[in-house]
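Subgroup meeting minutes
Present: P.N., E.W., G.H.
Scribe: E.W.

1. P.N. recapped why we're keeping a running log of single-chain structure predictions: easier to compare across weeks, and new members can see raw inputs and outputs side by side.
2. G.H. added today's entry (160 aa).
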Amino acid sequence: MSDRYVALLRGINVGRANRVAMADLRPLVADLGYTGVRTLLNSGNVLFDAPVTDTAEVAARVEEALHTRLHVSAQVIVLSAAELAAVVDENPLLGISSDPSRLMVSFCRGPMDPRPLEPLMQQDWSPEALALGKGATYLWVPRGCDQEPVGPGGGACARR
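Output recorded in log:
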């Protein structure tokens, strides 16, 4: 029996560092034995089918193959389709986020301990909004990160 998964590669194709062509990424994942491999634009997001498996093990295999074959170090998070759907469904900002391109979701590798983030949750982020989920954090940036700094003191998406 096979399930659908997504591998999210962190920090690739941002600026000039860690460039990975999707034409190289698809066969890399397929060569690991996964099927139905598809990528989304130049995002580093990879959809594939695999037997029901340990997602941490799959992530480690993809990370190792990236390093060995493409000489790129990147953290990989693998979610089943059901896990990804749960992150979408539990999004507490869906009622205010009217433009998906301005809603950022950051995934966690394994269970998230919310305690280190509690001070951030006490701050007023208006007009932005920050929320925590079980396996992700959500940030609504109605004006976009490229227009002006976000959050208290302008820290979350400050211009570079």
